[in-house]
Amino acid sequence: MADTRTVTQLFALDDLLSDEEKAIRDTVRKFGEDRIRPHIAGWFDEARIPAKELAKELGGLGVLGMHLDGYGCAGMSAVTYGLACLELEAIDSGIRSLVSVQGSLAMFAIHHWGSEEQKQEWLPRMAAGDALGCFGLTEPDFGSDPGGMRTRAVRDGSDWVLNGAKMWITNGSVADVAVVWAKTDLEQGARGIRGFVVPTDTPGFSAPEIRAKMSLRASVTSELVLQDVRLPESAMLPKAAGLSGPLSCLNEARFGIIFGSIGAARDCLETAVDYASTRMVFDKPLAAYQLTQAKLADMALEVGKGHLLAYRLGRLKDAGEVEPAQVSLGKLNNCREAIKVARECRTILAANGITLEYPVIRHANNLESVLTYEGTSEVHQLTIGRALTGEAAFR
């Protein structure tokens, strides 16, 4: 077989990373290849994942909340965290989702908006993987418009009582703590959105798992049901008021997706190159045909560009200069191109591409979810449009 070059080599991507960043990336890659890849197709097929067990191992690896400082967190750079997301999603989007929800949603909410007591109680255990978290924002009737949520928190003496439901919540059924957002009557009579740290063993809280998914099957997805869930005053996140709280958390999670989605695309492309190099068609390798090489070249271009975009946004984030519209650029482009790459790679593998013997159809199915969660493509287009024109076209 002729000598081949990877996308990393074609774009000289390693030249853009420090030795430490490459070392941590390689450590996460090895963990994924050795510990998870041998099992992931079976987990996907059976729609299960040993979430608690993996959380402890991922905590030991140091990737849970790795971009946060203190409280047992590694305090790594945004780029390093992104590279970890990329390598985990190159295995499966469900694994990256577990890490993103734990670190960029639940832990970030407590770290950024919580009290010192809340941080001390939860963050060290969550960083170690001894406690799993989930993030309750999306509702059955309110996804892209979180301000329309119906979940309510009502004062009762010094306590808060929560009622409502959340939907499509990763880690929900296995979580030890849920960060739940609800409307209150605070802020001088106006309804204000506030966050609450809810231990999942609180009476009235339940999290039935959502079954029969065709995407993110190696991931726990749940509904959260809150029926007269009584919480003390200390359960409220004291520093978050209004939508800025949950939206800041979503922006953190979207950043990880920018890297993660392109990791899934890379894995599809590498699989297609390997397959085409050994699959014989009309007495020569499939890779020797012009049409196949045209597909591979176009996909390599998009995967490489996706890496460059992710790295650039990571550097901006580390400098404290990244803006939400720029995160939307990355999420929109990399998710949209990743799912196109997965589908095109499936055509190269032909009938073999629909089996779990190869990762391509699994990535393609997972990316159907990644494309729309943490903001649909349409929402990100409008966010970018607002940045370009100054006009908000959401309504």
UniProtKB/TrEMBL annotation:
The keyword Translocase does not apply. The keyword Oxidoreductase applies. Residues 18-130 form the Acyl-CoA dehydrogenase/oxidase N-terminal domain. It holds the Pfam family Acyl-CoA_dh_N. Residues 242-388 form the Acyl-CoA dehydrogenase/oxidase C-terminal domain. GO terms for biological process: fatty acid beta-oxidation using acyl-CoA dehydrogenase; fatty-acyl-CoA biosynthetic process. Keywords: FAD, Flavoprotein, Oxidoreductase, Transit peptide. Residues 134-229 form the Acyl-CoA oxidase/dehydrogenase middle domain. Its cofactor is FAD. One of its GO terms (molecular function) is glutaryl-CoA dehydrogenase activity. It catalyses: a 2,3-saturated acyl-CoA + A = a 2,3-dehydroacyl-CoA + AH2. SUPFAM superfamilies: Acyl-CoA dehydrogenase C-terminal domain-like, Acyl-CoA dehydrogenase NM domain-like. Belongs to the acyl-CoA dehydrogenase family. This is Glutaryl-CoA dehydrogenase. The lineage of its organism: Bacteria, Bacillati, Actinomycetota, Actinomycetes, Mycobacteriales.
